């Protein structure tokens, strides 16, 4: 599907909304593919942080090739009017940010345990709201906050 054709379709059908989820199974290719038009390697763009599926994009022709079930997956996620946005740097950056946050959350939960992680998150949020947060951090990190010696 050429992006310019997709954008034209989107402009002609602004009322289109995402259908009910039907639980289809999408199949994604792992390796980079060659564009069937230009013969050049296509880039893969992740659709969301929740899925490992990636769109195959040919910059040479401005087209996206969808693997089996990917259009249904895009519709299921309500992204059928955002196909061109998926290909942007900002969209991909947001996905990487979300994935990093999930990874760090899992790391901290594993390291501290659920209860301790919950408590330390609450303390951190409280400190961030305080006007003297730098001093609060220094107090917490000092080996003996009541000592005049360094």
Q: Can you offer a commentary on this structure?
A:
This protein is mainly alpha-helical and 150 residues long. The protein has six helices and three strands; from the N terminus they run H-E-E-E-H-H-H-H-H. It folds into two domains: 94 residues, no CATH class; 38 residues, no CATH class. The protein has a three-stranded antiparallel sheet, with no helix packed on it.
List strands and helices in order, with pairings.
Layout: H1 3-12, E1 43-46, E2 54-58, E3 63-65, H2 70-76, H3 83-86, H4 89-112, H5 114-129, H6 133-141
Count of alpha/pi helices:
6
User: What's the N-to-C terminus distance?
Assistant: 66 Å
Strand order of the largest sheet: 1-2-3
Tally of DSSP β-strands: 3
Helix fraction bin? 40-55%
Mean pLDDT: 88
Beta fraction? 5-15%
Largest sheet: 3 strands, antiparallel
Derived structural class: mainly alpha
Regions with pLDDT < 50 over 5+ consecutive residues?
A: none
What is the 3D shape? elongated
Radius of gyration: 23 Å
- What is the total number of structural domains? 2
Element string (H = helix, E = strand) = HEEEHHHHH
């Amino acid at each position: 599907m050429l992006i310019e054709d997709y954008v034209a379709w989107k402009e002609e059908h602004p009322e289109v909304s995402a259908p009910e989820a039907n639980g289809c199974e999408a199949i994604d290719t792992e390796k980079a593919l060659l564009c069937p038009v230009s013969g050049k390697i296509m880039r893969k763009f992740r659709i969301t942080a929740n899925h490992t599926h990636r769109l195959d994009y040919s910059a040479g022709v401005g087209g996206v090739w969808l693997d089996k079930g990917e259009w249904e997956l895009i519709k299921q996620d309500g992204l059928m009017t955002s196909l061109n946005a998926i290909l942007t740097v900002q969209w991909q950056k947001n996905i990487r940010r979300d994935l990093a946050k999930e990874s760090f959350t899992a790391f901290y939960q594993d390291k501290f345990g659920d209860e301790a992680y919950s408590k330390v998150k609450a303390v951190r949020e409280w400190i961030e709201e305080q006007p003297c947060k730098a001093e609060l951090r220094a107090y917490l990190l000092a080996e003996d906050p009541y000592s005049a010696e360094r």
